[in-house]
């Protein structure tokens, strides 16, 4: 259907906004004026309206001045051109068009869109632009780990989701995960199978822990789940899917993986339902229906039928039957059973929708490489047609090379990428050179076989946004990125100007902290981004190594500090100064903390006290500074959780979920896994734990006894649980003059 636009404003949008009949009259009037005035009337395809809408939400009504056109290219590509003051963006898909428009706007220094904030400064006239064609070697650009729906998006409403989907569109993402709303399907499914609603709600985990319930790791933890939450997420998922589909995306939605409520055993006593080994210490084992049991196919089919009734058809269905869980096999039947399990999951999807593709995360293959050796991976995938499956191989920053040893998964379709973020924890890291070399090597490899996609599947968002900007630009290049050119444009886009000091600071940042593809120190002695964030223990004196070069990072900070002092109203520049200061000071605190523990262990209590007090002073000052970053505030996270409740009881439950997730969630092994560099966490959680620990060290020393670390651990755990049960929401503390406060921290 072809329509028209006058002076960049689509006539069709006028018709839609004021009514069909009246709009038609208005459109004819505009066309008459247009013809009489000699102005150009151009074609306007209704199919690009979602792209116009997305761009208009980001930059305002002048988005309608761009000429957006769909083409018929077989692969995703977009061409940018200008003529007589007009800008033409021509691509074969809506994501390609959106990426092309964003590329043009960035290259003229007019726009920057990020989690931390947007900068929109449009020129009076659109500048000329040389003809440019961008073509991606990847059919799909994937995004979002299933865990992100717990660590970040759990309290999001439609307003926030709308912004994120627009963020995806302008980066050309077309294969996002869409995991919201599945509890509404399971509720109907389990009720159909004879379970009581109250039992089903008890079976579901709490809101902040649903991703791990969905993957079969836990049941009931942090629950029960309120019915109102299920209803809200059902309505939200409908909005999410409608918007994603309108923008030409192919959302990955859930399928049945085999995990069932324990009470289903009572209803189907002949079914092969067994309790698995616990995922982590402290959790009960979940229940799995044997994929070979006929009931598996029945439930799998019915789940998709119900899903489609609620949310419409989909092309890609995610089912992970053994994510960080060992399949119930023995050495003598392992390969045969794995093949049958894989076939059963595939058939449960196919019998409901023969056109659908089974998507599975490849994380488990690296996470337990002893069990999932090459032969076992091949067996599991052996009975699934290559064209009906996609393996999301996204752990290449931590578990590289699985695709090589499996010969590109034996010819199955697969996507390549990274997790990058774990648990929503937010230290500064990434590795531009690593990503650059990986993509170029991948694209030029003759062994990649049926590679169809690329991207990042982060467990949490709102951190290291520069990494995501870089990676999704790489997905549209395939032949690498020239750092000097890219960072110059990025700086212009983000700050609105460039200077020698800004460019030098980014070179130093690249050399100091952005040469780490996987932040291994967070795994030393359990989770936690920094030593301060880890549950206190005397063995931190054995810690060795920090990611990056602290001296060069400090040099970068000095340059950014100079720029910020000259441009105090530049909010994104101030944000970045705080971001990198936060990382530097956190590592600095860790080094003092180690020295404090050493002093106490050596019996030098006065020195230990001096070092400990210095640690706490700096941490508390840093806590105040972080209040300038609106995304890094404990109070905001808790306020969002509280708002999601429909009554006081629900709000209190969500607050407890939110507090627990960022602290003791995961038990002794994963404690502090989702720790955050947030205002409110340094001063009110991390520092008090270490104060308790140091007091116990001094008491043991005074009594002439060795420190009973187990007793101290239990004491701290009790304090942590009390903290998690608090119902209050701390207010954000905001202090202006970022440059002054950074200067004060750097001299301590």
Would you kindly provide a written description of the structure presented here, covering whatever features stand out?
With 748 residues, the protein is α/β, with parallel strands linked by helices. The chain folds into three domains: 2-135, Chitobiase/beta-hexosaminidase domain 2-like (Chitobiase, domain 2); 143-194 and 229-256 and 292-463, Glycosidases (TIM Barrel); 505-746, Four Helix Bundle (Hemerythrin (Met), subunit A) (Up-down Bundle), CATH 1.20.120. Helix content is 49%, strand content 12%. It has 30 helices and 22 strands. An eight-stranded parallel sheet has the order 11-10-21-19-18-17-16-12, with helices on one face. Strand 7 (111-114) and strand 8 form a beta hairpin. The chain is globular. Mean pLDDT is 93; it is low at 1-9, 11-21 and 26-43.
């Amino acid at each position: 259907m072809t329509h028209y636009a006058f002076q960049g404003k689509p006539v069709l949008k006028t018709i839609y906004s004021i009514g069909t009949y009246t709009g038609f009259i208005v459109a004819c009037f505009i066309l008459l004026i247009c013809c009489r005035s000699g102005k150009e009337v151009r074609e306007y395809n209704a199919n690009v309206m979602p792209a116009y809408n997305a761009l208009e939400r980001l930059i305002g009504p002048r988005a309608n001045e761009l000429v957006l056109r769909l083409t018929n290219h077989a692969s995703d590509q977009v061409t940018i051109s200008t003529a007589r003051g007009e800008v033409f963006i021509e691509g074969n898909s809506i994501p390609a068009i959106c990426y092309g428009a964003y590329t043009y706007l960035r290259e003229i220094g007019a726009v920057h869109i990020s989690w931390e904030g947007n900068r929109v400064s449009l020129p009076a006239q659109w500048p000329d632009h040389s003809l440019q064609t961008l073509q991606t070697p990847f059919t799909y650009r994937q995004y979002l780990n299933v865990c992100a729906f717990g660590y970040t998006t759990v309290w999001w409403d439609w307003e926030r989701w709308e912004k994120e989907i627009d963020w995806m569109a302008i980066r050309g993402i077309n294969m996002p995960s869409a995991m919201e709303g599945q509890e509404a399907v399971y509720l109907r499914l389990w009720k159909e199978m004879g379970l009581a609603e109250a039992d089903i709600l008890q079976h579901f985990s709490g809101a902040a822990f649903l991703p791990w319930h969905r993957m079969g790791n836990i049941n009931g933890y942090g629950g029960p789940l309120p019915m109102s939450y299920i209803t809200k997420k059902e309505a939200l998922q409908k909005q999410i899917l409608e918007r994603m589909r309108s923008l030409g995306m192919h959302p990955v939605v859930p399928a049945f993986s085999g995990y069932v409520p324990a009470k289903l055993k009572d209803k189907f006593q002949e079914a092969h339902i067994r309790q698995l080994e616990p995922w982590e210490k402290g959790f009960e084992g979940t229940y799995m229906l044997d994929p070979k049991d006929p009931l598996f196919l029945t439930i799998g089919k019915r789940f998709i039928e119900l899903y489609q009734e609620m949310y419409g058809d989909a092309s890609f269905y995610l089912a992970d039957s053994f994510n960080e869980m060992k399949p119930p096999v023995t050495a003598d039947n392992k390969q045969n059973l794995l093949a049958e399990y894989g076939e059963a999951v595939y058939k449960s999807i196919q019998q409901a929708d023969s056109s659908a593709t089974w998507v599975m995360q490849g994380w488990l293959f690296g996470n337990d490489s002893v069990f999932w050796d090459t032969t076992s991976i091949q067996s599991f995938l052996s009975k699934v047609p290559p064209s009906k499956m996609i393996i999301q191989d996204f752990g290449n920053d931590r578990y590289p090379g699985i695709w090589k040893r499996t010969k590109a998964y034996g010819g199955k379709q697969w996507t390549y990428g990274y997790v990058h973020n774990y648990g929503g924890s937010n230290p500064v890291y990434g590795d531009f050179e690593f990503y650059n070399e990986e993509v170029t090597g991948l694209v030029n490899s003759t062994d990649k076989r049926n590679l169809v996609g690329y991207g990042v599947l982060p467990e949490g968002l709102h951190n290291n946004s520069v990494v995501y900007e870089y990676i999704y630009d790489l997905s549209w290049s395939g032949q690498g990125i020239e750092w000097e050119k890219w960072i110059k444009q990025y700086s212009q886009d983000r700050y609105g100007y460039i200077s020698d000091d800004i460019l030098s600071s980014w070179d130093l940042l690249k050399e100091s902290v952005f040469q780490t593809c996987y932040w291994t120190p967070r795994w030393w002695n359990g989770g936690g981004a920094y030593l301060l964030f880890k549950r206190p223990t005397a063995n931190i004196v054995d810690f060795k190594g920090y990611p990056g070069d602290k001296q060069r990072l400090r040099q970068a900070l000095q340059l950014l500090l100079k720029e910020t002092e000259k441009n105090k109203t530049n909010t994104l520049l101030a944000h970045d100064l705080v971001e990198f200061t936060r990382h530097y000071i956190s590592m600095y605190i860790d080094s003092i903390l180690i020295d404090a523990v050493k002093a106490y262990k050596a019996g030098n209590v006065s020195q230990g006290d001096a070092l400990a007090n210095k640690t706490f002073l700096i941490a508390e000052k840093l806590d105040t500074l972080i209040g300038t970053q609106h995304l890094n505030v404990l109070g905001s996270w808790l306020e969002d959780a509280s708002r999601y409740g429909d009554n006081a009881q629900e709000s209190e439950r969500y607050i407890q979920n939110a507090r627990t997730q960022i602290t003791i969630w995961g038990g002794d092994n994963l404690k502090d896994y989702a720790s955050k560099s947030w205002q409110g966490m340094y001063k009110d959680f991390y520092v008090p734990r270490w104060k308790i620990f140091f007091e116990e060290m001094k008491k043991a020393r005074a009594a002439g006894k060795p420190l009973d670390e187990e007793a101290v651990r239990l004491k701290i755990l009790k304090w942590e649980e009390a903290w998690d049960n608090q119902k209050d929401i701390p207010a954000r503390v905001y202090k202006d003059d970022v440059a002054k406060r950074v200067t004060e921290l750097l001299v301590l």
